[in-house]
Amino acid sequence: SFNEYTTAGNATCTTGAPETAVCDNENCDATDVRYVGEALGHNYGSDGVCSVCSDIMPNLARYDISAEGSNVIATIYETDKTIGSSTNIALLLKITGTGASIDFETEAPWADEYGKKIVYVEIDDNVTAIGSYSFAGLTKLEEVKLSSALTDIPAFAFSKCESIEELEIPASVVTISESAFVDCDGLETVTIGEGS
Predict the structure, then answer these.
(1) DSSP-based three-state secondary structure for 113
(2) Is 183 exposed, middle or buried (0-12, 13-18, 19+ CB in 10 A)?
(3) Which one of 15, 94, 126, 171 is CB 3.0 to 4.6 Å from 193, fit for a cystine?
(4) d(CA 18, CA 60)
(5) Cα separation of 134 and 158, whole Å?
């Protein structure tokens, strides 16, 4: 048997707090570890890295969408939220890197498989251009954070994104295609940054 357990550390992102005990038999040097309490859970930042343990958020899919001379990646992550009252997990589409993404001739490659689950889009501030049809058909998309370096919103970029109700367009944007928001029936409020 083991003597009393004593706290041996703090809870982490993935385990409760460790407690240790030493065997009661003086001829035995065995120890036992148990974990008590709840794990803290990861605290992923906008960069997809946990601020507590530096774990990287697991992703469902990655796409290289770099235009020539650029380095732009689209990554899809699960979030801790569900879509409306359903049990479907809401997804985040994060565009990272530097430079411009490619244009798509129709919907982007993630639209078919994940289009009805992507609720959030974040575009890092080093991304200067998004392609035509980048977010077309993301019918559950509600929240969009555009890059502060974005210069234009191309044709059909957000077409059929019927769940977006409001959008903030950064001051860096100088051109918005006439068809950029076609069939965005829920879009009620567009705020344009000063200087646009």
Answers:
(1) helix
(2) middle
(3) 171
(4) 32
(5) 7
CA distance 155 to 78: 28
Query: How many angstroms separate the CA atoms of 25 and 117, rounded?
Result: 57
Per-residue pLDDT at 53: 85
Contacts of 117 (CB under 8 A, 6+ apart): 83, 88, 89, 90, 91, 140
pLDDT in tens, 13-49: 888 999 999 888 888 888 899 999 888 888 776 666 7
Residue pLDDT, tens place only, 118-157: 999 999 999 999 999 999 999 999 999 999 999 999 999 9
Per-residue confidence band for 164, with pLDDT thresholds at 50, 70 and 90: very high
Whether the pTM exceeds 0.90: the reply is no
Return d(Cα 43, Cα 55) in angstroms, integer: 9
61 token code pair: 């899919």
Q: What's the pLDDT at 79?
A: 80
Q: Which residues pair with 166 in a beta bridge?
A: 189
CA distance 61 to 109: 10
| Rg for the chain, CA atoms, rounded | 23
